[in-house]
Structures
1.
Amino acid sequence: FYSSIKIFYYWSLIFGCAPYKFIIDTMADTINIKRTIFSVIQSAIAILVVFVWMMYTIIKPIVLNTYESNTTLVVSQIITVCFSGSSCFLSLISSVTINIKKWGFIFEKVLYIDKIILREPQQSYKKTKLFITLQILVTIVLLVSFHAYETLSKKNKMFYKIAMRIFVHVHNVTVTLQFINLVLLLSNRLKIISERLEELSSIFKNSIKLREQRQTNASLFDTQRYSLMGTSAMQNSTNNPVLGHETSDITLDNTNKLNILTGLKQLREVHHIICDILNGVVNSIYGLNILILSTYMFLSCVKYVHLMMIMVVKKPGSESLDLLNINSPGMMLCFIVLHLSKVVLISVACNNASQVCANLNSSINSLLLTYPSGSDVSKELQLLSIQTIHSKLEFTAFDFFPLDFTYFHMFLAGVTTYTVILLQFA
């Protein structure tokens, strides 16, 4: 498991999103995490620098009296920088303090789940590693291209401001990717539960076929025996049925029945752990951060869409553009596309996980129709069905709004509405 996430772990470590090290016990096959002195110092320095940068961004316009000439632009820039910096600031603090234990709990439970439901873990981990590697490469290419253009276009401007903005931006992107990857990983494990249920169904169907074949063979044997013994023997046989007819209501032999019951109990446990992580731990780690990031992305999109619309009528001066740390509509469009991409990815990941969990109950209900009512397997399936009904996945931004496709619709509607309002007042 560690090998599949190692690349993303080091990427997160660089930007202060993973202030811990892995302790792998190969003998016991366990993974633990531990806070290190280096990570604490790194996080403390990053927290201090981000805080100073935020204060500098707020105080500088007041000292230089920039509000008098460009009040709207300066205020909007300060607000967006505050939300972006606050997200990074709170994420750094929580990562090095309260989230360490939560991440340790997640890694421990995911490893336990994989031991139960993964038949070929190495194959699954290779796919995860490939997906994460491609994800990191695409992220690096996009961020380097965008910020390289921004840096070169500034020429002799203060590069430390750009460096701070790059660090905060990449940190926030990394936190968003952490959330998305964790949701996708656990939703994949929910899909595997559905696959295991289908396997149990195939075992049951094979048992039925085997029983029918045994009954057919027994009937042929009885017919041949009765034809040799005569009618009187056939009449007497009604009082002494053969073993096959006597146990015709039994559809599973003891071995298959025990395997299915054990498998269903394990699937119930795995389902409970996954839902507990997604509904509880993941929301507590990322809920507030996603809320602040969403507010920042929303305000940025409104600001840049509004400016691009204004530029169609009248191009603002270079001073106004410098206040926004941009030089062209192309850079504004890049910011808008980047923010919308993050909103779409969050919506798709959360909606996919919720849909997989909902479809799981449908699979269980169809499986219940196959098994005879009153059997031990049927009772276990009913317990699993009740568990899935009461364990619906709900992702929220600190309980302010849901993180599914309604989140994306609300985001687009809000940006459009406020842009129109600003244009009317302008």
2.
Amino acid sequence: MKNVSLLLFVMLFAFFGCDRNSVLDQYSSMSKEQWHMDSLKHFQFNIDDSLAIYSMYLNIRNTGEYGYSNLIIFADTDLPGEQHIRDTINCILADDKGEWLGSGFGSIWTNKIPYKTRVRFPRTGKYELTLQHGMREEELEGITDIGVRIEKLN
């Protein structure tokens, strides 16, 4: 019985233990499952090691109500020292046949889109990433959440 309890404890710790390589893993939910063009999503994080290598991902949750196979996102990064970088990301959410990509649960699909892989941040300090959709429609129906994950690779 002790061996079973110990095994269960180890499994639970491994499953629920903290992710030491995660610098940021955060979502922002959309009001009424709609993302308005003027609704900016802000994510703040600290970088304490400018020599380490990181990967950044955009996590997108959508329903079948989303009317496109892709999502254009403008990503504005404010670095310590008032430097600013703007990127445009084309996030592919469905294949050529219109089938949703990513993992699905019920009527919601989640995609982990690589944004910047194997990069170094130029300096330590507080960063802010601001996301805005860049589609032609002002209000996108079917986008439920947008998230950012930053992983420290070494």
3.
Amino acid sequence: MWHMTSPILIDIPEEVIGFRVLLRPYRPEDAAALWEAIQESREHLAPWMPWVHDYHSLDVARAYVARARARWLLREDLAVGIFRRDGGFLGGSGLHRMNWTLRTFEIGY
């Protein structure tokens, strides 16, 4: 059911399970894998992702994961981690800049 006045009431699946991958909101235990992925890809990400320069420690990744979870619950931003079905971290994506009235979102990855 669509809740035009209160997006927080919209039931959104916590997981999307594919044949080989799993998409789900970040959890606290994902921070280390996120940090490692950013470290490994920093040079490639930097030209297009200005936020990469803000990630200077594991604590920054932990704080991001906590904020991402809170924003998911409030339906302000739907950031997800992309994982192999066996649990390995592959990357991230999400729906951002949401307009619940128009039902429009920006897809980020």
4.
Amino acid sequence: MIAWHGSPALFDCFDAGKISPVQSEGFGIYVTEHRDIACHYATPGIWRQSTAPRSGYVYEVEAPDGEYIDNSKFFDEQPAVVRAILLDAVDRLAGPMAGYWRFVITAAPSQYPQYTQVGKTLSFARKNGTPVEPSLIAAGFAGFKLITDVMNEYVIVDPAVLKVRSVAPVEERMAA
């Protein structure tokens, strides 16, 4: 799959150590099928809420074909193996925030597309110290996808599988 990634930084290859901790739909590198969405994320001012003109970079990447977990689906619509892993993750949530996290995960369908059950489960499991992504990848999934009316977003958990095909300043990509 050919996809796009926007970043305020220039680099040669993706590095898991540079991944932001926010990661609302899974921990990994976010790519999209829409160049204009990547251009938006490439603009440094977007991240810093700054109006200063600064350039970022848009990467054309080759992402793995394969099966992606559809984060826009609810737990009961997921394949059995995914459902089992996610429900186990919810059962392992512990500590003072566990009750709140379970409430948010249960309420997620009413909050879509602001957030999803899968995305919140992944996020809370990481905060709990019990990340789910390795189990899902071991089960053969390439990553996660979130399909909305506005964009298609993919999360690639293993940055080593992404191949940079080209990179250009955001101004050049926007003009193309």
